[in-house]
């Protein structure tokens, strides 16, 4: 190769190679340098041209040249063969500059050649065939074996990085993969499907073809074959365990065991429900123990979990459920439902009647011999009138009357002893039977006639007039012996009532309404004593349950009585004097003559006829004065003691249209500015004292005389207001009186003629001026202006006098000032 050829080659190479030299230069002085060059390239590649510095004339190359690197005397560094990273990844070279004599003048300086990797090595499995085994139900994703491949390329580049894949699984059913491989580590594990479905009894052996591939741009790959044997899972739920309760054997006692597929697992028990005590344990062989005697009555079964973990306490597989049943033994005697069971039975019940069911308890397991109870009656107290009055059904516990009906008189109570037994135990229980009374006795009065009573008719309501007494020999304080008293005759008005004392059954006859001599001077009363509960059939109330008395009512002179407290009447306000508006009648209980009079009649509108009670008008009424007229009417006995009663009388006076309409107020000072500049108008209102409909008054307005219509116009605004307007401008500067007719439209209609005074006057600042004193009463705006102007006039005159004085003193200047003060009064 000639230097020229080399030079040309050199440039081509420099452009193709990246990272050469420094600052894009391909030549330079001798100094330490590092070059990176891809392996496997064509030989005779120029790397760099060193420039000799006199006296240096030539260069020498030493170091790890491996016969590949050379340097020409002119400093051109190149390699003659392809580099191979896998043989040497870094070449440490040294270059020295020599003078003509061959003596070193510079260097040696280190030149480092880094060989960059290209993907020129395929991955290779370390074994062409692997064998392994996996336990049925192993945790998915947990590797049970590894395959391993190597690649000589730089592991720092994709060329040397490997990825594993399962290519083929044999056999394969329904396209479901049971195995998977970690593409980085080569660890082979089960898929979730594999963990679930692998079963050595169905298929024992599997074969996988695994590929490995590097990740270079143009990857290489290799395959290997893996034979896998499936082993049975011995991590299985143990059979349910049955433990007899209350065991006296020394504890702990082994009851069952679990075992993980491989040795070295740690075992634990986990409670499924939180219990006050957990009487089980497990050792590191997987043996499960019960640690103390169990009690069926406390808890009849236990369910808990056994878990296996690895040394890092990570679960190796799903927990196993352990089921323990506690077997009952008859270790509980029967118990009584309570210290004493009480039943009741009525007197006279028939033989065979059910008294009640007695039920004992047993804590042992239900529906077994251990809790099956039997009943036996062993004693009865008292044994009167005979023994064995009762019997109990052996298995049902039903207590029945066996010999005869009971009588409370014989014994009101029986104490029974009942023996309750199960297979091994006997318990004695107490039962008390109470005999209850029935309502077979009637109340009997202590006497049948309580004689004559006398009370005045004004005796206060609530007074007790008599105490009566009946007795009942049924059981006290029951509905069979409690008495209520009913008045059955002689008091249809309900004037009397009887209250019963619950302790003594005494009856208090009490006045509930006033007595009335005039209506009922004698009351012949009959009282019945009854029980609250009905009598048993065959027993009836008889005469002994009735009593009577006679009540004489004495007369008392009473005041006359009106039938109401307030009387009302209504009358039109225009009724004629002497009209009867109401008739008042009072009655004297004793039938005495009465005389009537009025009280509080201050207006003198009404009078009353002393004997008949007629109320008449005595004067003209006026609703507008008083629409509700109230007086009092007195009815008095005409003889001693002149007892009297007073009631209210209210007379409502209804309206009649008897008031003509009028102006709503005094319209004073109505004025328009003179001369008129345009049409003017003013608003006025009317009113009426009569009662108005709810919509308000409806007045109509019109001019009071025909000839005014050429100058004025009246127009209605609404029911109360109207507008008075001018019809032209030609009014004189004076006051006009305009008569206006107002009609109230009532029944009958009333009309009035009113007058509005309107003044046309000269205006000062838009207001009319009028001299003082023309209108009595309160000052109008015009009057106020007048007062003001008069005041100004007086001040003006004073000023004029002052000015004239000054002028006299000063000598004749400023004539206008004095003239300005001569203010003339304005005309009305
Ligand atoms: C694979 O083999 C290489 C070389 O023998 C070794 O360094 C590496 O640890 C192995 N990897 C595995 C997962 O066995
Ligand atoms: C390797 O597996 C991981 C996780 O399964 C996946 O994300 C990744 O893409 C895989 N790499 C290759 C090269 O298949
Ligand atoms: C266990 O049995 C004995 C008799 O064998 C008994 O006395 C004891 O009460 C029983 N204990 C329990 C908790 O049932
Ligand atoms: C029944 O027993 C109770 C005590 O439990 C006692 O007070 C009562 O007098 C006894 N009755 C009879 C009739 O013996
Ligand atoms: C009760 O009054 C009546 C009638 O006045 C009279 O016949 C009778 O004897 C009186 N009875 C008694 C017990 O006073
Ligand atoms: C009413 O009956 C009772 C018994 O229930 C009896 O003692 C009494 O004599 C009877 N009275 C009359 C008036 O028959
Ligand atoms: C009637 O008209 C006058 C003036 O417009 C007004 O003030 C008044 O409220 C009106 N009255 C009714 C009842 O509308």
Automatic annotation (TrEMBL):
Signal peptide interval: 1-21
Membrane topology: Single-pass type I membrane protein
GO CC terms of this entry: adherens junction; catenin complex
Gene Ontology molecular function: any one: calcium ion binding
GO biological process, one term: calcium-dependent cell-cell adhesion via plasma membrane cell adhesion molecules
Domain Cadherin: 57-125, 126-336, 337-445, 447-562, 563-663, 684-773
Entry's transmembrane regions: 781-804
Keywords tagged on the record: Calcium, Cell adhesion, Cell membrane, Glycoprotein, Membrane, Metal-binding, Repeat, Signal, Transmembrane, Transmembrane helix
Pfam families assigned: Cadherin
SMART domains tied to this protein: CA
Subcellular location as annotated: Cell membrane
Protein name per its UniProtKB record: Cadherin-17
Organism: Erinaceus europaeus
